[in-house]
Amino acid sequence: MPHLEQLAELVGHEDRVWCATWHPTKPILATCSGDKTVRIWQATNAQDPSKWQCTNVLEGGHKRTIRSVAWSPDGRQLATGSFDATTGIWERDEDESGDYECVATLEGHENETKSIAWSKSGALLATCSRDKSVWIWEVEEDNDFECLSVLQEHTQDVKMVAWHPTEELLASASYDDTIKIWKDDDDDWYCSDTLHGHESTVWAIDFAPSGDEIVSASADQSLKIWKRFPPGNPFGIVTPRRGEPVWKCVATVSGQHERCIYSVSWSKAHGLIASAGADNTIRLFEATEARPEAEGRLTPEQQRAMNEPGVLVETVAVAQVKEAHGTSDINSVAWYPSETHGDWLASGGDDGSVRIWRLVQ
Amino acid sequence: MAFSGALTLSDLNDFISPSQACIKPVEVAKTAETQGAIKVDNSGSYYEVSQDGSETKLETATISLNDCLACSGCITSAESVLVTLQSQEELYSILKQNKIAIETNDPSTHRTVVVSISPQTRASFAAKYQQTPLQVARKLTWFFKSLGVHSVFDTSFSRDLALLETGREFVDRYRKAIAKGVLKPPNMNGSAAPADAAAGGSGDMEVDTPKPKKRIIRRGAAATTDEPAVAVETESAMPMLASACPGWICYAEKTHGYMLPYISETKSPQQIMGSMVKNHFGSQLNLNPDQIYHVCVMPCYDKKLEASRSDFYSDLYKTRDVDCVITSTEVEKMFSEQGQTDMSVFGELDLDLGYNSVIKDPNTGADQVLIGASGNASGGFLEYVMQYAAREIFGIDGVDVDRAVGVEVKTVRNSDFREVTLEVPGSGEVLLKFAAAYGFRNIQNLVRKVKTGKSPYHFVEVMACPSGCINGGGQLKPPGDNFVAVPLKDWIAQVDGQYRNGVLARKPEENPVLEQLYREWLGGIDTPKAREQLRTGYHAVEQNLVNPLAVKW
Fold first, then answer.
1. Which GO terms describe its biological process (chain A) (predicted)?
2. Do β-strands A313-321 and A282-289 pair in parallel, antiparallel, or remain unpaired?
3. pLDDT digits (tens, 9 = 90+) for A187-231
């Protein structure tokens, strides 16, 4: 029976931990907190993953809670999104003390920044905020960031932004219960699709390793998996807008989490989905292509008639850890991004601790 | 009981979405005492009773039209209710009042109504109703006069003044900036060091603040990026930013107060027309400013905000320079309200002399042909200031930005961001570098560059709407259903095409009436009266950070 065992508990933050994120290539973890700092953690000994130390504390860059932190794809920069409405860009000073310094501050949002994300190429940075907008920035040399677009189509607070693993395609999740997909037409960004279905705030989203599916976590206590159907797809799903693919819900995981789900992570290594939230439990799911003979499945004709894919993906609950952070909400879960330590999962919670878990099959 | 810093609109029966209460912060003067009780007396007045028993009467908090429109914090239709205070309804009621005043022979309640129409509105009607701008102007004159309006004017006329003043203000600032060392004088000899020529923009601009170091260690102290290190003085601040767009002004006042010193102090064409109509035209008719009712027809709603600024209100006569702004779409509504939907059968009248830009047509001999400054549909500020400054400062004549003569015109990144560069003929040394930044994302980039001292420009024409004024929020939509038949880009191109259709080009300084105006009305070019009538100022809005607990998520 696969299960998660706790490898380490990292203490140091003085307030709730909002976000934990792995370095793209090295076993280094960055976490951010209501204590207005980011902490960088590294295993003291590569062979023994149970001992971690905090190697850097990034402070003084923000005046309020740091809500989200993200490594650039080349691992050389960190972006921090804060409730003070700014996004900080940090770099490590190689020649001097190895400390991180804030080399740029992106302003523009009217109020709390909720999430930031780098595109796969590292050329673009997306930020979103309670001001209902999503901003897309282009990274230029000399640590200058130019605003490419301000997208204001969500009708409420935007909670999270996430980029497609390979394409320049952005997804955003909002308090308005929808997920929006954004693309650009020669630097003019537009909303290519809006995903309806959740009955409450969508708190988090993550792309599948292939990029053709998205998993979303919501305050309605369910996870949904959405699949992309390009024009002319074999399932007969109609694509109404000229040349644009549509995204349809192909699975809903309900009855598992007992409260809001705040975070979800789809492993690029083994494909398991980890989710966690206000019920203090980390849960793991596996998503597989549904067998055609599965019960409750619509026939192809029925599907075409409804323009709905029915159930195309089945999910199975694989493991869970209750009280993973004691009686505290869990705000963030993140799988290690590559196969090297693909069995590692990091989590951050309201108790101010960060925990490293290992999936034991 | 504590005083909350936020105010809730409670007696409106409009729906306020649950996540947003009005966040207009009420300023509460903090006293030394912490606890106080609130008492209500029989008349419903509130008193704060302090611990020693003394009572202070509390003022009721109010929200004015300005507070509300400039805030855009809540999205209730209460805002549109307040905006209807400036609409064609007001105009109708004034006209009705006038009729009564005439019938009852009571001149004290009569107000002479003047309507000033913007060239963008003219272009909008021309495109939709398949007329030429001259026909539109003549028909609108007929339409408004048939309602009882006294005079119909064209803001192209006051724009000539705005352009002249902006050009002069720029040259003045440039010279002071060089004198104070804010700017480095360019090398006119042509033997410029290669590094300078290659660096082009950013190398030449040195602002008073020390050049920000590439790596700034901020550990320990919170990043204070709110104010630049050294205060900027308006008289030499570079770049100079155009001031004609109230959407931009309100945004800068609310969110980027440190940008205000850079903004040109010249009034917009609308407000210059306001000053002229109330203080010059009025005196010619022997009327006080409050005996005139001045309406402006504009392509956007933000112009209503501009008209109601306290800077444009006369305390003496208790009247505004522009009493009412209506948009192109509101005028179209007036057509149907008056039962006149077919513009092609409207009557036509000659345009009023005075503040119109018309002359006898030199080509056809017709009595009237439209004439105005060249430049794009957002007023042509960049075009005019560039050719004026080139001549005044460097003695370079014949610069024509429209036709890219004498300057290099480049589209940077997107069509709403253009750069225009004047170089020393031959050497390529940059003399003047101007830009036009339209739309929110480009304003963001501009603001960021100016704030960090990395802006390479001397002058920037800033407009809040993508594609500029021709695409203002109050412009007419194409016939049919919402941009399906005619995509927005094509529609904008059509309206833009009508903007100068049949309009002869004339430089503002060649307008013979202006010289007369300066002499008779303002007493000269740089007189106190000229500054009072043609210049204005800006005020940063205090950013009271909302108590997060008071905001409903």
1. iron-sulfur cluster assembly
2. antiparallel
3. 789 999 999 999 999 999 999 999 999 999 999 999 999 999 998
How far is the C-alpha of A185 from the C-alpha of A293, rounded, in Å?
41
* pLDDT (0 to 100) of residue B18: 33
Domains of chain B, earliest start first: 83-159+268-373+509-521 (3.40.50.1780), 162-267+375-505 (3.40.950.10)
Average pLDDT over chain B, rounded to an integer: 80
Give the C-alpha distances (Å, rounded to integers) separating B430 from A81, B242, B262, B425, B452.
Answer: 39, 21, 21, 10, 21
Phi-psi region of B32 (alpha: psi -120 to 50; beta: other; left: phi over 0): alpha
Q: Is A131:B246 a contact under the CB 8 Å cutoff?
A: no
Strands in B140-279 per DSSP E: 151-154, 240-241
What's the pLDDT score for residue A291? 60
Task: Please choose, from the candidates A343, A328, A331, A327, the residue with its C-alpha nearest in 3D space to the C-alpha of residue A20.
Answer: A331
Q: So what's the pLDDT on residue A238? A: 82
Task: Look at residue B6 and tell me whether its pLDDT is greater than 50.
Answer: no
**Partner residue opposite B445 with nearest CB, options A59, A99, A147:** A147
Among B225, B441, B454, whose Cβ lies nearest the Cβ of A148?
B441
B87: distance to nearest CA of chain A, Å? Answer: 28
DSSP assignment of A170-212, as one string? EEEEETTS-EEEEEEETTEEEEEEEE---SS-EEEEEE-TTSS
More confident residue, A86 or A309: A86
Share of chain A above pLDDT 70, in %: 93
Rounded mean pLDDT of A134-159?
Answer: 92
- Is residue B16 scored above 50 in pLDDT? no
> Is residue A228 a contact partner of residue A309, using CB atoms and an 8 Å limit?
no
CA B248 to CA B312: how far, in whole Å? 17
Task: Please state, in angstroms and rounded to a whole number, the distance separating the CA atoms of residues B548 and B117.
Answer: 45
How far apart are the C-alpha atoms of B286 and A355, rounded to whole Å? Answer: 82
Place of tokens 């001259």: B134
Residues linked to residue B295 through DSSP beta bridges, in sequence order = B115, B324
Any A CB within 8 A of B448 CB: yes
The model carries a pTM of 0.77
Among positive and negative, which fits the CA dihedral B289, B242, B446, A152?
positive
B497 Cβ partners below 8 Å, 6+ apart?
B127
Q: What is the Cα–Cα distance from A193 to A229, expressed in whole angstroms? A: 11
Q: Do A107 and B225 count as a contact with CB atoms less than 8 A apart? A: yes
Q: Which residues of B touch A62 (CB under 8 A)?
A: 222-223
Residue given tokens 């024009």 in the structure block: A231
pLDDT the model gives residue B191: 47
Tell me the β-bridge partners of A136. Answer: A126, A149
